[in-house]
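Hello,

Our lab assistant flagged a job as stuck in the queue for most of the afternoon. It eventually completed. Since we weren't sure the result was trustworthy after the delay, we are filing this so someone can double-check. Below is the sequence as submitted and the structure that was eventually returned. Let us know if re-running is recommended.
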Amino acid sequence: MRHPRLGGRYRARTILPILLASTALTGVPCAYAQQAGAPQPGAQPPGAETVVVTAQKREENLQKAAVAVQALTSAKIENLHITDFKDYVKYFPSMTYTNGGQGGTGGPGFYNISMRGVVSGNDGNHSGSLPTVGTYLDEQPITTIGGTLDIHMYDIARIEALAGPQGTLYGASSLSGTVRIITNRPNPGEFEAGYNLEGNVVDHGGLGGVAEGFVNLPISDRVAVRLVAWAEHDAGYIDNVKGTRTYPEDPLGLNGPPIPSITINNFKRAKDDYNDVDIYGGRAALRIDLNDNWTITPTIMGQDTKANGSFGFDPSVGDLEVTHFYPEFAHDKWYQAALTVQGKISDFDLVYSGGYMGRWIDSASDYTDYTYWYDVLYGYGKYIYDDNYTVVDPSQYIRGKDYFTKQSHEIRISSPKEDRLRFIAGLFYERQFHYIQQDYRINAIGSLLSVTGWPHTLWLTDQDRVDRDYAAYGEASFDITQGLTLTGGIRLFKAENSLKGFFGFNSFYSKRTGESQCFAPTSVDRGPCTNLDKSVEETGETHRVNLSWQIDDDHLLYATYSTGFRPGGVNRRSTIPPYDSDTLSNYEIGWKTSWNNDTLRFNGAIFWEDWKAYQFSFLGENSFTEIHNAGAATVKGIEIDFLWLPTDSLTISGSGAYNDGQTTEDFCGPVVDGKIITKCPDPLALPDPIPPPQAPAGTQLPIAPKWKGNLVGRYDFMLWNMNAHFQTSGSWQSATWPDLRVRAPNTPNALNPTDTSHIRSFIGRQPAYGTIDFSTGVEQDNWTLEFYLKNAFDERGQTYRYAECLTQVCGFEPYIVVTRPRTFGIRWGQRF
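-- returned structure --
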C-alpha cells in the first residue's frame, strides 16, 4: 500500500529534492572506503570517458560533434539496468512516446516516439501517418507503422538520440529526430564471453527474471563471430477481476424491435497479474576483414515477444484492475538480416549497408467498451441478431494479423575527415510493405450481417500498404579557419504511398461502407472484394546549414538551420482526399563544453521549430480513422546535459529539457470538401451560432511534457578488497494532455453554457510524476553481484490515457497506462 503522503501532487513536487538528498548520501560510506584503500579526498580525478558517436555518419568525439546528440554508453546501459525502450527513454529528455499497443492494450513493442514536442497525438494507426522519429539498428532503419521495435538492450555499444530534424542524412521519418541503437561488433583480436542471471519481484504482481549471454569467438586474425542470446519474463501487475456487463433493454421497442437486456460475465477469464510478457531473442554477427582496407559484416537478429492482457487499467474498476471479457494478447516476432561493407577507394571511404526485416504480429483485444457505450447511447444492440432475427449478445472483440517487410539499401562515399574541404554523399532506397488484417467479431452474429466469407465478422480490414522512399543526399564541410567550420547539406527525395484492399461491413448492414462500395474482385488475401485502391507520390528536398566554432579543445559553439519532412499518404474513405507531407524548420544554437581538466562537461541547445501542415489523425464517423493536415504549430525550448566528477569516486550526471509546443492556427474541426478548416468562422455569427474551434490557436501540443529531466549519482568505493558502488537515479516530467483537441466535435453551439463535451475533460490529464531507482553491488575478478530497486516509491506515473473508440462515445471509460510498480531485483554476472 502506498504511503498517503507520497501520492499525487506532493510526490511530484518533492521528487527532485529527495533525489538530490539521496545523491548527497552517497558520501556516507566514505570513511569506510578510505580504510579499504579507496583514493583519498582531494586526489585529482581522471577525466570523463571519451564517447565516440556516428551521428553524422562519421566516427567522432561526442564533444566535437556540432549537433544535438546524446548517448548512453554500454557501461551506462548496464549501470542503469536498461533492458528495454521504457528504460532508456527516461534518460533522453527530448524524447517522449505514446503506447496504445496493438488493439489499444498498451503492450510492449508498439511505442510511437516523438522528440522535442513535435507530436499531434493519435499516430500509430496502421493506415495512418508515418512516424516522426526514425529508428535505426546499426546502419539499417527499423521504423515501422504502429510502433518501434522494443529490442532487448543487451550487448549494446551505445544508444544515440539526435534531436531535431535529420532530413539530410536520415530522410523521411526523421522529422523531429533519430534514435540509433548500435550493437557491439565482432572483434578478431580476443576471445570474450559473459552472462547475466537476474530475478525480480513486482509489487502488486508476480515474479520475473532474465538470462542473457554473449560470446565473441576469433576464428582467425581477420575473422570473428559474435553470438548473443536472451530470455526474459516480465511479471504481470494488472488484474482482470471478475465482473459482469449488462446491455440495456428496450422493452417498448422505442429504437426499433423490442429487445431484452443481455448480461455477460468474465468469470472464466478473470486472472491476477494479467499482463505478463515473455521475450526470447538472439543475434549473430560475422566480421571478415578481407584485407587492411575492406571489411564485410553480415548480421542477423530476431526476437519473439508474447504479451498477455491489458497494460492499461480501468480506474472505474480499481487500481491496476480491468474487467474484460475476451482474450487479449499480442504475439510479436521479427527478424532482421543486414549486411555492411566498408572499404577504401584511394583516400575515400565507401560504405554499403543493406537490410531486410520481417515482422509478424498476431493480436487479440477486448472491444466490449465500444459495444456497450454505442448500445447505451445509440441503441446499437438492436441491429445485432442471428439468422432467426433474434437479438443476440452484441459483444465485440478484435483479432488482428499484421505482416511487415522492410528492405533498405544505402551506399555512401566520404572524403577524409582531416581534409579542410570534406564531404559525404549517398544514395538511399527503402520499401516498406504492411499487410493489415483487423477482424471485428461477434460470436453470435448471423450470416446475414457477416462479411462475405468471414463468419461472425461484422467489420473487416484486409489491406496491403506499401511505402517507398528514394533519396540522393550530400553534405560538405569547409574549415574557414582552424576552428571555424561551415557545413551545408541537401537531400532530394521521392516518396510513394499506396493502400489497396477491403474495409468495412457487408452490403446488407451498410450501404455506405464496405461491400456496397466494391468496384473489383478480391485483390488482397481473402477479402470479399476490393473497395480501396489509392496511391500518391511526391518529390521535394530538405536542407541543413551549420556553422561551428571550436573555440579551443574544450569549448564548441554551433548554429544550425535544418529542415525535415514526413511523407503524405491516402485516406481510406473515398470522400476524403489524401493528406500532404508535413515539414519542420529548425533554428538552433548549441554548445559543447568541458571544464576543470574534463571533469565537468556541460552541453546544451536552444531551439525554435516551425511545424507546417502537421498531420493529425483522429477517429471520425463510426470510429473510422481520418488523417488531415490540420494547420501549423511552433515549438521552442532548451535542452541540457552534464557530467561532473567531483572526485574519482563520485559521478553525478543529468539532463533536462523544456519544450513549449503550441498551435499557431485554429483547429476548427469541421471538414469541408474533404479538408480541415483552419480559419474558423465567427462563433457568434447569426442566425445560427456555430461551435468554437476544437483546438484554438495557442493550444498546448499533446503527449510531450513541457519539462522533463533526470539525475544520476554514483559512488564507487572499496569493500573488503572488492569494488563496490551505490547509485541513485531519478526522472521527472510535467503534466501532459493525451489529445490535441480541447473540445469534442458536434458541440451543440458556442453559446451553450451546459456544454461539457470536451475531449480533454473526457479522457483527463496525465499528471506530473517522477520515479527514483536505487542500486548497490560489488564486483571482484570476473564476477558482479547487484541489488536494485526500481520505482522505489511505487509511483503511478501515467504514460498514456486512451479510450477504446471515439472519445465522445467511449470516453466515459478511459484507460490509464502507468509506469511499472516498484520492482526489486538481484543480478549476478560473469565475464571471461
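-- support follow-up --
The delay was a queue issue, not a problem with the job. The result is valid. The radius of gyration is 28 Å. Residues 550 and 556 are 4 Å apart (CA to CA).
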